[in-house]
Amino acid sequence: MKNKDLSFWLFLTPVLLALAIVVFIPLIIGTYYSFTDWNGLTVTKFVGFEHYLNILKDETFIDALKFTTLFSIVAVILLNIIGLGLAILVTQKLKSSNFLRTIFFMPNLIGGLILGFIWQFVFINVFGEIGQSLGIPSLQGWLSTTNTGFWGLVILTIWQMSGYIMIIYIAYLQNIPNELNEAADIDGASSLQRFRHITFPLVAPAFTVSMFLTLSNAFKIYDQNLSLTEGGPFGSTQMVAMDIVRTAYTRNQLAYGQAKAVIFFIIIAVIALSQVYYNKKREVDL
Amino acid sequence: MRKTKKRFFLEVIGIILALLWVVPFYLMISNAFKSKVDIFRDVIGFPSSFNLANFKEAFTELNFLNSLFYSTVITVVSISIIIFFSSMAGYALSRNKSRLSSTLLLVFVAAMLIPFQSVMIPLVSMFGKANMLNPVGLIFMYLGFGCSLSIFLYHGAMTGISASLDEAATIDGANRFQIFIKIIFPLLKPISVTVAILNTIWIWNDFLLPNLVLSQETATIPLRMFFFFGQYTKQWHLALAGLTLAIIPVVAGYFFAQKQIIEGVSDGAVK
């Protein structure tokens, strides 16, 4: 097909149209709105960087950004360790390998909203009862403090997503030739040495994929946040995505919410691009 | 001897972890059978009887058949449209070797980096002005958000399909559209399964977008679950029965197609 072929353009028109209307046009006019007093219907004046300057003084947003960043870092580290651990476990040719894989992956198929509600019950009622009957006060009152809300979200995220990360690592682990491990075994290498010198370097490309996925996924979390803690207590576990939704739809500050959304876009884009760049560079160095 | 011992040890660790993974589901289902008082009295034990009363009430309150219907229609139609148009686009992009074509592919890949929340506010307002805040509008939005990854996957799969097939068919007098439908599309079936699975997991479970677009009458399962939870927040026996009902279709699907699902997700993530 050539550029001037009618069929080339006919085949591309539906998706180009949808992508433009749904993603690019809203992004462009949204960026424009963020510099105005847009109220959802009309624009009466241009306000320059007013919204952006206000965001710098907006404690709700700053707190949400701090909370989201801390959450994402902890979640990414734990997800990758646990995901890789599960992957190594289920590739040991155990009798239960297939069964385990199925179980670990299952929470991924269920929406974050529903999982959040289930865990709300587990944290509040089940943890509470265990804490009461065993006399462990730290198990009581989960999700009612910032700290337990934070760890509640981390536990939920790990339980939901580590099966997915496991799948990614499995794909790479299965590409490691068996002979390598056997040869090392004969040479007297311990399991730890084999992991350090064979498995780890060969699985390194999987970090590109999975760090990128987990970091941007963790940063964009909304459903789990809404159903597990609703941002509470007192908005202290509110993440950036929820702050944007609430600014726009609870407080009806559409232009201001959009300015936050533009900043959110820039953060996600920077994370994604720097990760791809960094990981590509490291792979070449290896 | 050392090997068998180690293997046994790993099997045990695996089973313990699997139990840990299943515990939340066990707690949800077992408590869905209990009365409000029983949950308060003993949250961990088995239910004393398998009373379906909670499920019946949740089924009616959730308007379950209605939300199941809208979830199914919206997911199936969106997936079909995404598959059809994305495979066409992936085909066209891979058969055109110009710089324009690779730039367009880059545009689709770049679109994947744009988070939903950063286009959400103007998008919903635009569709509101056009009177498109309904299932049809939602399906169109899913095409827009879903096509990028799908085109990327189809484009990758096309590298394995030789252009000589196209040439042979052209000599036989077939036009581009016929070549695509009769020859290329059937060869793309494995990647179509992957595209269908990835998009189904996303669309079936999506909450925020339907919440902004759909009304009460056309609510999907996650959306209805959210309304329901708002009403029954202190009534865990009903809420848990509702959550169990909401999960049944997904677990049933997983039971029948787990191999394809895990393979599809693996393909989608690694490529």
Automatic annotation (TrEMBL), chain A:
<feature type="transmembrane region" description="Helical">
    <location>
        <begin position="7"/>
        <end position="29"/>
    </location>
</feature>
<keyword id="KW-1003">Cell membrane</keyword>
<dbReference type="GO" id="GO:0055085">
    <property type="term" value="P:transmembrane transport"/>
</dbReference>
<dbReference type="InterPro" id="IPR035906">
    <property type="entry name" value="MetI-like_sf"/>
</dbReference>
<keyword id="KW-1133">Transmembrane helix</keyword>
<dbReference type="InterPro" id="IPR000515">
    <property type="entry name" value="MetI-like"/>
</dbReference>
<keyword id="KW-0812">Transmembrane</keyword>
<dbReference type="Pfam" id="PF00528">
    <property type="entry name" value="BPD_transp_1"/>
</dbReference>
<dbReference type="InterPro" id="IPR051393">
    <property type="entry name" value="ABC_transporter_permease"/>
</dbReference>
<keyword id="KW-0472">Membrane</keyword>
<feature type="transmembrane region" description="Helical">
    <location>
        <begin position="148"/>
        <end position="172"/>
    </location>
</feature>
<protein>
    <submittedName>
        <fullName>Raffinose/stachyose/melibiose transport system permease protein</fullName>
    </submittedName>
</protein>
<feature type="domain" description="ABC transmembrane type-1">
    <location>
        <begin position="65"/>
        <end position="277"/>
    </location>
</feature>
<comment type="similarity">
    <text>Belongs to the binding-protein-dependent transport system permease family.</text>
</comment>
<dbReference type="GO" id="GO:0005886">
    <property type="term" value="C:plasma membrane"/>
</dbReference>
<feature type="transmembrane region" description="Helical">
    <location>
        <begin position="70"/>
        <end position="91"/>
    </location>
</feature>
<feature type="transmembrane region" description="Helical">
    <location>
        <begin position="261"/>
        <end position="278"/>
    </location>
</feature>
<keyword id="KW-0813">Transport</keyword>
<feature type="transmembrane region" description="Helical">
    <location>
        <begin position="103"/>
        <end position="128"/>
    </location>
</feature>
From TrEMBL, chain B:
<keyword id="KW-1003">Cell membrane</keyword>
<dbReference type="InterPro" id="IPR000515">
    <property type="entry name" value="MetI-like"/>
</dbReference>
<feature type="transmembrane region" description="Helical">
    <location>
        <begin position="12"/>
        <end position="33"/>
    </location>
</feature>
<protein>
    <submittedName>
        <fullName>Carbohydrate ABC transporter membrane protein 2 (CUT1 family)</fullName>
    </submittedName>
</protein>
<feature type="transmembrane region" description="Helical">
    <location>
        <begin position="179"/>
        <end position="204"/>
    </location>
</feature>
<dbReference type="GO" id="GO:0055085">
    <property type="term" value="P:transmembrane transport"/>
</dbReference>
<keyword id="KW-0812">Transmembrane</keyword>
<feature type="domain" description="ABC transmembrane type-1">
    <location>
        <begin position="68"/>
        <end position="257"/>
    </location>
</feature>
<feature type="transmembrane region" description="Helical">
    <location>
        <begin position="139"/>
        <end position="158"/>
    </location>
</feature>
<dbReference type="GO" id="GO:0005886">
    <property type="term" value="C:plasma membrane"/>
</dbReference>
<comment type="similarity">
    <text>Belongs to the binding-protein-dependent transport system permease family.</text>
</comment>
<feature type="transmembrane region" description="Helical">
    <location>
        <begin position="236"/>
        <end position="257"/>
    </location>
</feature>
<dbReference type="InterPro" id="IPR035906">
    <property type="entry name" value="MetI-like_sf"/>
</dbReference>
<keyword id="KW-1133">Transmembrane helix</keyword>
<feature type="transmembrane region" description="Helical">
    <location>
        <begin position="68"/>
        <end position="93"/>
    </location>
</feature>
<keyword id="KW-0813">Transport</keyword>
<keyword id="KW-0472">Membrane</keyword>
<feature type="transmembrane region" description="Helical">
    <location>
        <begin position="105"/>
        <end position="127"/>
    </location>
</feature>
<dbReference type="Pfam" id="PF00528">
    <property type="entry name" value="BPD_transp_1"/>
</dbReference>
